[in-house]
Amino acid sequence: MDRDKRRFWIIIASIAAAVVLLLGSLYIALDFIEEWRERQQLTHQRELPRQVEDRERNSPPTQRQPSEEERTPAPEQRPEGNQQRRQLSLDEAREIAEKYLQSRNIDASFRNHSGIDREAGTRVWELEYRGRDGLTHEFYIDVYTGDVVKFETGDWD
Q: What share of the chain is helix, strand, coil (3-state, %, to 5)?
């Protein structure tokens, strides 16, 4: 009987481990798919202006083409949810971080970035600044909204 109990618990532990591995793999696969879609959207966004310029150059001037401001939707018209969303560029993220530092009277200069990462389930730009006092300031800035998701200061290197 004791032997059967051990077998039972070994089987339960094996099933639990398999479920954990399966869920981890699923999370990684979904994250990969999401990043791939975002890269495709960014590529499409870069190619689209070139296509518009080519079409404008080759089309007869019968109608006035809308300006960039007219083509950009108002905030209430911008896509939400799974629709295409524009990501902040690295320069825009740096500008947000530098305004944040200035508002707190922190004298620091850009050191490096780790690219786009995840923080608390949100896609963020991870930026690092080095203060004149030797402290490191790390920013996690939402790639879609520009919100500072997390800000850390420390003397780590």
A: 50, 25, 25
- Alpha helices for 59-154 (secondary structure H): 68-71, 90-103
Backbone torsions φ then ψ of 109, nearest 5 degrees: -125, 150
Intervals of the chain under pLDDT 70: 39, 41-84, 156-157
- 34-56 per-position pLDDT tens digit: 777 776 766 665 555 555 555 55
| DSSP assignment letter at 132 | T
Both structure tokens of 18:
């398999």
CA dihedral (129, 131, 137, 140) positive or negative:
negative
Q: How many CB atoms lie within 10 A of CB 19?
A: 10
With b for 16 or more beta-carbon neighbours within 10 A and e for fewer, the 27-66 pattern comes to: eeeeeeeeeeebeeeeeeeeeeeeeeeeeeeeeeeeeeee
120: which 2 tokens? 């608390």
Global pTM reads 0.48
